[in-house]
Amino acid sequence: MSQKGLGKGLGALIAMFDEENENLKKETKTIETKEIDFFSELPSPKKKEPITKTTLAKKEDNTTPPTSGVLEIDINLIDNNVNQPRKTFDPTGLQELADSIASSGVFQPILLNKVGGRYMIVAGERRWRASKLAGLNKIPALIRDYSPRQVAEIAIVENLQREDLNEIELAKGIKKLMDDFFLTQEKVATVLGKNRSSIANTLRLLNLPSEVQHLVETNQLSAGHAKCLVAVSNVEKCIRLAHQCVTQQLSVRELENIIKGPQIASTSSSQSKPQSIELRHLARELTLKLGTKVVIQGNESQGKILIEYYDKKDLIRLSTTLKD
Predict the structure, then answer these.
(1) Angle at 115 (CA atoms; ends 61, 53), nearest 5 degrees
(2) What is the pLDDT of residues 154-206, one digit of tens each?
């Protein structure tokens, strides 16, 4: 997964959220001050100090302001984010990082949200895990106050920039983000710096049988193979082809030829002359894009595009995709 595809870096996203939250605090403070001005004009109850700007200032002085600097946080007071999209951590890579930290320390602070008397990781779970392996008691951290939506977005972008997420983890992370916070594909695409069609194609991987998804999650099957297999509606055939790719180490092109071979032959035989390479390529592209079999009959001047669907749910999905 290329980092160039990200239109918005993790640092820029965090800076944007910090600015949003700071503006929200300023707006809230302005409203509270206006309310105090209003209530200070009312008669005060006996034996009670009237609410004034002076008493507000005293109250604020007794409150510890949130820090913006790096703090050393007790590593045992930190919990991982259960909604972190990345579910697997390579043990070898984690041990190598732990050895580096034991030797040189943690160079980059992790990002935390304060939750009661404890802290939840927003970004940097791998550094936290490696620090525990290295036997550290404390870890440098930045403390913030992000909303659940902001935490989820930062977690996905952080993993994407470090190329740590496989396509199934990414698809599950995007799906949860959309479901939990009622976000559209367009909104998610903006946050991740991708186009909407790329998000749609990633989400289609969740239509694969769980057995095939597991092969992708364990890096036995590539995302390219998985995107080809989305077009195979028969579950048993899909699983069989997935295992064939693993055991025979088939390339994505070889898998495409296996899936599309009969279609190209039948299409060619029904025409008076062979179909052009461009049209055959277009049929393959449409098949991958729509996640179902697409057949082009005819030539560049005239013909038909046949799009197959296999049940009502599939028809609704295709209808929505084509309308978009």
Answers:
(1) 20
(2) 777 776 655 566 888 888 888 887 887 787 888 888 877 788 888 888 999 99
* 21 Cβ neighbours under 8 A, 6+ residues apart: 144, 145, 146
* Strand partners for 142: 70, 111
- Predicted local distance difference test score (pLDDT) of residue 243: 93
Tokens 């983000």 -> residue: 177
Running DSSP on this structure, what letter comes out for residue 324? -
> Contact 163/1 with Cβ under 8 angstroms?
yes
Q: What is the pLDDT of residue 131?
A: 93
Query: In the numeric block, which tokens belong to residue 225?
Result: 């193979």
- Residue ranges of the chain whose pLDDT lies below 50: 1-8, 31, 34-36, 38-40, 42, 45-67, 263-272
Which amino acid would we find at residue 204?
R
Looking from the CA of 228 toward its CB, the CA atoms found within 13 Å total: 22
List residues bridging with 111 in a β-sheet.
123, 142
Active site residue ranges: 125
Q: Would you mind telling me the total number of residues written for the chain in this entry?
A: 324
3-class DSSP assignment, residue 236? helix
3-state class (DSSP) for residue 124 = coil
Residue with tokens 């943690």: 106
CB 137, CB 74: distance < 8 Å: yes
Give which of 90, 126, 87 is closest to 108, Cα–Cα: 126
Query: What sections of the chain are H helices per DSSP?
Result: 10-40, 53-61, 91-104, 125-133, 148-161, 167-181, 185-192, 196-204, 210-217, 223-229, 235-248, 252-269, 277-290, 312-323
**Token code pair at residue 132:** 């525990």
